[in-house]
């Protein structure tokens, strides 16, 4: 595990967090190990009558290299918006986003995206769907094909490379999407409620799979969810967002062992984290 | 007790896999029997009515007269001629429709600007313009090809545009997250995704192209099935007219089936219930 000292574990108000991330020495020290540095990020939308609506922020946060940060919050708080901002898919209104030290203005090559739905192309086989980013980015196709097969193996679909999406279950399709997000070997993976549409059982299996993939591939992962247990189970850090406009109300470092089984969810330590986040939800009044 | 025992025994005997049988197939698809059945019934009743009421052949021929006409007269020449006109027109319309539709869909401003004109042209009966084409391009094949193309063009164009415009936003977002170029988005996502709509347009267009060729031949021609119908009408050869209609409908059905095969090959991935049908 890389050092995580730059991420603060204390509950802090938004003002405090902005302040804490401000000092130059801190930012410089973070540059070496931080995958993503966000400072005073805001998103506002223009309304029909010419006014402005604050949708998100200000948010300041640092995601360490190799960390698994889950983002949890009430629906409509801007979780997905935050992920789209960080990935460069939508423009921000204020603040700064640095991915591997580079300011983000457009989608970054070093980011792999997994969306709420698998978004597979139905006319392509599983392996050709995995190869899509390689084709778009103009990578060496022969080498990519080998890698795609390895990735399919990693997500447990080695025997399904030649199948079309319609022949795969929802869970399998989402696994293909995960393999696709890794084909160009990005150092950061951004996942927007990728297992939201799956049934509880499949979801648990997918969570275990994802942890295994994370440990094996050594990526930095940002993972949006609305499930508190999922957020704790997966994350090394949990970002708790408030109601719209979404702000960080708590940043929890989950110091559970990296090798986790589903049984960890019934431990006391897990309960403590769950209680802490839930109490944040309660004080915010979103439950 | 006894009855419980037997019922348990029956549930345990698994039925042997049924061998392929015609009876089973017809049971699953009764239309395979009903379709030719309707044809036979219509032919028999038609024949009976004509004979019973002794309707003169120049008013309404019996199926047997039509069959005779089909056997005695060669329709091949005219059929191939008309088919050639229609298919040339169809291909012309397909190429122009897809290229122009693709261009228009790429530029929203172009679409907005041209849309009212497209609607105006689309709602004008193209048949009404046909006499002009005869005047401009003469009695030969060219005028018919152009009439067929004009009529077949719009359903293709409209479907290409709406197919390309209805791309799943999630797919566009995926491509944008990969920083795909406009051309990559078009060829990898938009165009393949639009194929079901494009095929629906082609399906209509291929039938429309026959219509165009026939209309053209009605207006002025030396050859073709449309020309044959006009001549037979003048000669009161009603059985011949019906035989020509039969040939035309056979051509139409063949083209429809051909398009269906092509469509299934190209759109094997599409949920067939979502493919718009004519």
Describe this structure in words.
The complex is a heterodimer of chains A (about 290) and B (about 280). With about 290 residues, chain A is of the alpha/beta class. Chain A is globular, with a radius of gyration of 19 Å. The two termini of chain A are about 35 Å apart. Chain B is mainly alpha-helical. Chain B is flat. The N and C termini of chain B lie far apart (about 60 Å). The N terminus of chain B is likely disordered. Chains A and B meet through helix 4 of A and helix 9 and helix 10 of B.
Order of helices and strands of chain A: HHEEEHEEEHHHEHEHEEH
**Helix tally of chain A?**
9
User: Helix share of residues of chain B?
Assistant: over 70%
Q: State the strand order across the main sheet of chain A.
A: 6-7-8-3-9-10
Stated plainly, the CATH topology of the largest domain in chain B is called: MetI-like fold
Give me some keywords for this one:
heterodimer; A: alpha/beta; four-stranded antiparallel sheet; 9 helices; B: mainly alpha; MetI-like fold; 78% helix; flat
SSE inventory with pairings:
The complex is a heterodimer of chains A (287) and B (278).
Chain A: H1 14-21, H2 24-33, E1 34-46, E2 52-64, E3 68-72, H3 79-87, E4 94-99, E5 102-103, E6 111-114, H4 126-137, H5 141-154, H6 170-182, E7 188-192, H7 200-217, E8 220-225, H8 228-234, E9 237-241, E10 248-253, H9 268-284
Parallel strand pairs in A: 3-8, 3-9, 6-7, 7-8
Antiparallel strand pairs in A: 1-2, 1-4, 4-5, 9-10
Helix pairs in contact in A: 4-5, 4-6, 5-6, 8-9
Chain B: H1 2-12, H2 22-28, H3 31-53, H4 63-72, H5 76-106, H6 108-123, H7 130-137, H8 141-165, H9 169-177, H10 182-219, H11 225-234, H12 238-266
